[in-house]
Amino acid sequence: MAGVFDHIHLKKKSVGSPNELSFDVLDKASNELDGKSKMPSLPTNLPKGTPQSFHGVSGGSTLSGQAEVEQRKSARLKSNRRVLVTALAVVAVVAVAIVGAVGAFAPRYVQEETHFDEELAALVSKLVEVDTMVGKVDDLMESPLAEENKQSYKTLLDQIEPTQKEIESIRSEIAKVSDATLSDDRRQALKQLDSAAEARSSMLTAAGGTINIASKSESEIQNANAAWASVLDADQKAREATQRANAATTEKDTQEAQELTRQAHDQMVESQKVLQDIVDRHVGIDLGPQMTYLKVKVEALDHALATGEALLAVDRAKAQAENAAYNETDEKAASLAESLPTSVEEAIRAAFDQEIAVYEAKYQASRDQAISADAVVRTYLNE
Q1: How far apart are CA 248 and CA 254, in angstroms?
Q2: In angstroms, rounded to a whole number, what is the distance separating the alpha carbons of residues 354 and 210?
Q3: Rounded distance between C-alpha atoms, residue 327 and residue 306, angstroms
Q4: Which of 1, 174, 226, 342 is buried most deeply by CB count within 10 Å?
Q5: CA-to-CA distance for 383 and 375, rounded, in angstroms?
Q6: Upper half-sphere CA count for residue 357 (Cβ side, 13 Å)
Q7: Other CB atoms closer than 10 Å to residue 179's CB: what's the count?
Q8: Dihedral of alpha carbons 331, 296, 279, 270, sign
Q9: How far apart are CA 306 and CA 322, in angstroms?
């Protein structure tokens, strides 16, 4: 069955591409971080081995010019070692200066940095658990009104609020981890993890709005279609009533025609009310042509009823006047009917398309934010 918004689609996810919304890689990386520091270690020893072990020439060689070659290579090695020693000396001086400045705090700094990575990995794992629900919503948003998705509306709506509370709890934990002493890359990873969590909450909000509109659209279209079917049925009754009135030879015939006309009239009025209520509930729905037709048609049936009442009251003059008014008004209604759409569904669908497009745009923007933030966190964890 065609959906109301069949032409509205999220670009399907490309599995394994930058557009993939998933922490699968992060989950694996986070498990590898347990007890593992990302702090680089300083070299504590110079390269071991004799000069021969670096250039691979045996001291026992008798080739011509070997002594000169060995001397030059030995000189280069000594020069290289001096560079290493000088660099290490600079590092040592800096290290001594740091130790002299912070004393016993240096080991704690390393411990705190390691602890941060463990906390970040734990937070990522919690967000991965939330992604189970986000993944369900993401699948639904590809085609909100697909028949297989309609059955899950209530279940998903019931899960959105609890899931958002979980996300808020994660964001609270992220805020507690935030510390001005963190390195720039750690601070950025934490910031992007919070952005990823926030984006997921926004996705759920937009999805909830979409589901609500999708549910309403189905209900409103069913009501509108039923109302319009009643209009068509009432029109048939009005035609039959007219035929009976024209063929009436007794008071009973006129009364029966009058009753059928009243049924047609009341159905038209009720349908008019149902459709007007739908229009009032949704500003974007335009049923102007249908409502204009119904107004004129109800007016024509008012004259038809007045004609029958005048005939039953044996008021010939009034009956003729009301009959003339009926013919004129009904002809106008027939003219309006020629240009009416075949159903009211198209106009209602168009209005709901516009409403859902607003939430679709919000969802996609939040999804893009999540993808971007995920990439930053993934890069940090995979370094």
Answers
A1: 6
A2: 11
A3: 13
A4: 174
A5: 12
A6: 11
A7: 11
A8: negative
A9: 6
Cα–chain-centroid distance for residue 63? 77
| Range of weakest confidence among 47-56, 124-133, 155-164 | 47-56
HSE-up of 360 (CA within 13 Å, CB side)?
Answer: 20
Region of residue 27 (left: phi > 0; alpha: psi -120 to 50; beta: else):
alpha
Angstrom CA distances, 353 to 3, 59, 170, 216, stand at 11, 85, 34, 12
- How far apart (Å, rounded) are the C-alpha atoms in residues 274 and 145? 24
Amino acid, single-letter form, for residue 243: Q
Cβ distance 199 to 366 under 8 Å?
yes
Tokens 């890359």, located at residue: 185
Are 185 and 42 in contact by the 8 Å Cβ rule? The answer is: no
DSSP 313: T
Task: Tell me which residue has tokens 């970040």.
Answer: 120
E-only strand ranges, the chain: none
Do 228 and 271 touch, CB atoms closer than 8 A? yes
Give the residue carrying structure tokens 């629900």: 133
3-class secondary-structure state, position 43 = coil
In whole numbers, what is the pLDDT of the chain averaged over residues? Answer: 75
Residue with tokens 């005048």: 310
102-131 mean pLDDT:
69
Instruction: State mean pLDDT over 169-196.
Output: 87
Q: Give the type of residue at 286.
A: D
As a whole number of Å, the CA-based R_g of the chain is: 40
Residue listed under structure tokens 């119904």: 294
